[in-house]
Structure formats: structure tokens, C-alpha cells
Amino acid sequence: MNHNTSKVLFFGSSNGNFKKIFEKTHDLNKKHNFDFLFCIGDFLPESGTDELEIIDLLEGRIQIPITTYFSIGKQRLHKKVEKKAIKNNGEICKNLFYIGKLGTLTTSKGIKISCLGGMYEEKQFYCKILPEDTEIKPYIYESEVDFIMKKGKDSDILVTFEWPKDIHKFSCKKMSKMIPGVQSIAKVTSYIQPKYHFSSNGSIFYEREPYKNISIEDRQKTNITRFISLGSLDNPDKERSSYAFNITASSLYDTSNTLNIPNVTRNPFTEEINTNSKEIKHNLEDSQYTFFWNKESSNSIKRQKHDTEISKSYDHIIKKEKKETNSDQVPQNCIQIHNITDHLIYNSSKLNKEKYEKESTIPPNYTCKICMQKGHWIQNCPQKKTTASRKPIRNHPKLEFCFFCLSDPRIARHLITSIGSETYLALPKGPLTTSSTNSPSLSFPGHVLIIPIAHVPTINAIEEVNRDKTKEEMERYRISINEMFKSKGCDTVAFEISRINGIHLHWQVIPIKKNLSDELENTFISMGNEKKYNFEKRDIKKDEENYLRIWLPNNTILVHIIKPETYFDLKFARYVISKVLNLEERSDWKNCVQTNEQEFQDSIQFKKHFKDFDFTI
Fold first, then answer.
1. One domain, residues 493 and 458
2. Which residues pair with 229 in a beta bridge?
3. What keywords sit in the KW lines (predicted)?
4. All residues at 6 or more sequence positions from 566 whose CB lies less than 8 Å from its CB, including other chains
């Protein structure tokens, strides 16, 4: 990891139980060695905090494992803590620092953090005569918004209690409940453009897809923002309350690296921002730098930009919009690329040449979608001519919701059988096996999915700080499921389809009768040969992302690498297993859909039998 990169841990509101956050941080820090902890929301609130624990904290009798920062949420800070913070300029005790309701700080590695705590209430926000103690009242005031926009510009992390208005726009991810956003917070985050924006109102976990910003000062410069809401500690809905990630200071960060981050959306905000006494309309939906073009809108907007920037005469553009003109007639006084007036701009040889030659440096993470190699743009790919007949690349599908995201309120929660810290188990909608097709000792279908909580298409797409932990937990679940089925006299086969343009990664585990286990390997290889799938007996390598992986009952792993621009049958693995089980009529899950009552009963049975093997209990 880059020595300038910080490992950061965030926790949601403690609601007074701050000691438990320190205990959890101590355990996590043993493995990850975080640079600092930030506690958002109500960390040391006026109500709900044990007085004796507060005294122990202020007198240094509670161990704080790493440097910790905090602000406020919807409650005023505990008065004893407030008094100590004022006296010691924010330092509460060793390793614990209060930033203030409104403030900024820069860490030793250059990470700039800005905070705007407190609730939004219209009467308080617009009050003409401000109270003297605004800095400690848990409300947002209009003057504070202007202050944080000025002082917090170019912050790496923004922390607010309230959500920004319209943050859910253009997002495929749904929330467990709707949280009303605040326009002023949207204005702040639009202007500051942090890499990460954390909020705690509503006590729900919501990790929005990254969205794209454009620099106000330099429209050639782009960056992304990730919005994350955290649940409070030990909340009744079991919403995730912690988040860990790596971050490098903006001053040391190459924004071109953001171009290859998956699932980036349009900017959800349309903000008018006052900067340098000029009103700048910041609408990324209409910007030429937006990631997601359709062909028509892209060409249209690019033509408009050439008309207004290259041509120095605007009268002919107005006339062109008002009435039809001869397409071969060069408007009078129109200055072309060559400063010659005998041809139209779109007939310029220089323009046509530059149309396919990009002069900007190729980002180090850019990968050509034809040959999957780095170092050249896709239009300059040497293999382009030989792949003229290839099928067009399908765009990543835009789903209204994800079947596997716990944050989606429409998820079939009755199918969830176990939830870990990074992954969970759920039964499929259409199980391949049934209680009647299994061994007599197995009275329920047993087909189960192991799913990461993070919405990612591949393991490598998970944030680095959580990647190993997620892999370990998925593997631990797989082994536990194997042990459960072993106790029932069954073997298991599992498979994973990993694709960088996939939706939500998951592993499928299926019970199989012991007398059929030996048939799996040969059947996979022989049926794979028919489709020109080349299986190798090995595990995946660290940099491999497009593959089919099979775990066989004898601990053999088969891997087929899915080559770029080749068709892969997503039903292949299930079909092979169905053939071995003599259940080919159930190879398509849509033919196996059950009623809600059947699913509910299967879930109860699975949890009952898995209880002794579930490491999360």
C-alpha cells in the first residue's frame, strides 16, 4: 500500500455506548492497523450516556486504541465533555478529539475532513438573530453552510448528520426506508466535492454507487464522491454500523484513476454555486464530461461545444437554429480550425484526423475492451480489424433494484438464513434440489447462496481493506455448510461465476448424494469440452476476475477462464449438476419457483439444521 494512503474506520452513532465502539475498534485494529477512527452522529450525547463512564473517559481511565475524532448528530454534546473540549481546544483525553459541530482538520497524511453536525429545522436555519451559543446547539444555521463551503473546499471526507437532498437519484440501490434530504447539505457536498460523504440520520446503512463531479474551477478535471450512511451501534434492524476503507489525500491523488471505477452514476444534484462572484450552473446531466452518453446526445452536445468555442462568430449559429440553411454554404466570417473560411468545420481534415486521436495521456488503469490490454485506446486496438464481426459489448444492465442487496426493502427477507459481518446466506428462489430428490436424511432442499453484503460483481471489486475479510467469511460459510451436509450423509458441490460486468457476486452450494459425487468432475470436463470451456485443476489467481470456479466434493477445484468477447452460458454449471442428479427438468430456476409459504418453511428448516454450524450465532 502507498505510504501516503490512510486506512480509515468509521462508526455510526454510539447513542452513548462509546466503550463498545472502542472495544470493537481494538479488535479490528489488530488485523488492519488503522490510521484513525471517526465516530459520526451522536457519539457522546447529552442524554443516554452513563455519567460514571463519562468521568472515567475524561480522567483517562478508558483505553482508546487509536486516534479518534468525533462531531455531533441530533443531540447536544454531553456538558462535561463540552466543557473539557472548550478548555482543551477539542482534546478530550489521549487519542480522542472533538472537531466541533462545524470544523475542519487535516491529518498527518494530509487527509482533509470537514464536519457540519446538527439537525435541519427551517425556523432555526433562517432565524435572523442567531443565539450566542450556535456552536454548541444541535441545529444547522444558514451562516454555517456558507462557512463550511468556504473552509471545507477540496476536503477528502465530509461528515454531516443530515442527508443531502436527492442523493438517491440515478441510483439502482434502494433504501430500507426513505430519509428526507436537505437542500443545503446537497449544496455543500456539490461544492466541496469530497471523495467520501458520511451521514447518520435515520440509522440505516446505505452505500450509494459513486457519482461523478466536475471541478468548478477546471472543467477538464473530474472526480467521484461516495455517499455512505451508517446505522447506529446495535440498532434493532441490524443495519451495518461500521465502514472501513483506504484513502489518499486529494493533493496526492490522480483523478484519472476514477475513470475505471465500476458503477459510477451521473451526479444527482443540479446546484447553482456562487464562486468568485459568478453564478455557475453546475449540471452534470448536461455536461460533456458525463460518463453515460447515448450516441445521439453525445454527438449533439459535442457539436454545440465546437460551434461555440471554435467559431468566433455567433450570429450564424442563431440563424441556423431559426431557419434551414444550405449545408454546403460556409457562413460569412466563420473562423474554422485552420483559420480558413472555404469549408465547414465538420469537413476539416484536421478535425477528422483528431476525431480518432486522443492527445491526453492514457490513464494507467484504462483497459481496452477488445483485447483487455492496457497502453492504448480502444479505437487504436491492433485487434480491432480482426474482431469486426464480433457481437457488440453489452452495457452493464441498469436494474431497478438488486435481488441480493440487503439495503433493498424489496428483498425477500424470509429467504435469509444467516448474516455475518461481511456476508450472508440466503436460499434461492428456485432451488435445484428438493426434499424428495435429496437423501432421506436431508428433509429440506439445501440449495443455498453465499453472498457478500457489498454490491460488487467480483471479489477484486471489494474495497481492499474489506476484501480479505469478505473472502475469509465466504469460505468459512462454505466449509460450515459442507460440515452440516456431511452430518446428514451428503456431499456438496459449489460454484461461482465471476465477471467484471456482472451484477452482485455470489456462490451457490448444492447438496449431492455421495454415490453421485465422483461423476461431477468428468461431467463438467466433458460437457465443458462441448462448449469449448477449458477447465484447469487449480484455484484462481489474484488478478483473475472473469471465470467459472467449481468446488468438487473431493476438494478438487476446477477453473475455466472466461475470455473477453466470448459468449458464456450462465446456466452451464447448474445444468451440469442437474444432469448428474438426473434433474434436468429443474436446470432453469424459473421452472422451480415455489410459493412464499414453501420458501418460508424451507428457510425455517435450513436455519434449524444449520444452527449448530453457524459461526455467527
1. yes
2. 199, 206
3. Metal-binding, Zinc, Zinc-finger
4. none
User: Can you read off the three cell numbers belonging to residue 235?
Assistant: 440498532
CB burial of 359-387 (b: ≥16 within 10 Å; e: otherwise) equals: eeeeeeebebebbeeeeeeeeebeeeeee
CB-CB neighbours of 239 under 10 Å: 20
Which of 250, 265, 286 is the C-terminal boundary of a domain? 286
CA distances from 400 to 171, 172, 290, 417 (A): 9, 5, 21, 24
Residues 216 and 275 in one domain: yes
The arrangement of strands across the sheet holding 423-426 comes to 416-419, 423-426, 448-452, 507-513, 490-498, 547-551, 557-561, 535-537
Band of the pLDDT at 257, cuts 50, 70, 90?
A: low
Please check whether residue 32 is in contact with residue 244, taking contact to mean a CB–CB distance below 8 angstroms. yes
Q: Tell me if 379 is assigned to some domain.
A: no
Pair (136, 86) in one structural domain: yes
Domain range for 600 is 413-613
Is residue 281 domain-shared with residue 298, that is, in the same domain? Answer: no
pLDDT band at 445 (very low <50, low <70, confident <90, very high): very high
Residue 188's pLDDT band, with cuts at 50, 70 and 90, is very high
Q: Which residues of 559-597 are buried (b: 16+ CB within 10 A; e: fewer)?
A: bbebebeeeeeeebbbebbbbbbebeebbeeeebebeee
The residues, any chain, with a CB within 8 Å of residue 236's CB and separated by 6 or more, are none
Question: What is the radius of gyration, based on Cα positions, of the chain?
Answer: 28
Residue 193 cell numbers, joined: 466535492
263 lies in the same domain as 303:
no
120 φ/ψ sector (left φ>0, alpha ψ -120 to 50, else beta): beta
What's the number of domains the chain is made of? 3
For the chain, the straight-line distance linking the first and the last C-alpha, in angstroms and rounded, comes to 34
Q: Which of 270, 286, 302 is the last residue before a domain boundary?
A: 286
Q: Are strands 36-39 and 5-11 parallel, antiparallel or unpaired?
A: parallel
d(CA 39, CA 70): 5
Give residue-wise pLDDT tens across range 377-430: 777 776 665 443 444 433 444 445 677 887 666 678 899 999 988 899 999 999
Of 16, 8, 26, 120, give the one whose Cα is nearest residue 69: 8
Please give the helix or strand (H or E) that residue 522 lies within, else none.
helix 519-530
State the alpha helices, DSSP H only, in 368-502.
Answer: 464-487
Tens of pLDDT along 284-334? 233 222 222 223 333 333 333 333 333 333 333 333 333 344 444 544 444
Cα angle 135-139-144, degrees, rounded to a multiple of 5: 60
Q: Pick from 571, 496, 576: which is nearest to 529 by CA?
A: 576
If asked whether residues 314 and 426 sit together in one domain, one would say no
Question: Hey, what's the cell of 214?
Answer: 466536475
**How far is 416 from 107, CA to CA, in rounded Å?**
41
Residue 202 to residues 14, 41, 178, 190, 502, Cα–Cα distance (Å)? 14, 10, 9, 22, 31
The DSSP line for 91-158 is EEETTEEE--SEEEEE-TT--EEEEE-SB--HHHHT-SS--TTTTTSSB--HHHHHHHHHHSTT-SEE
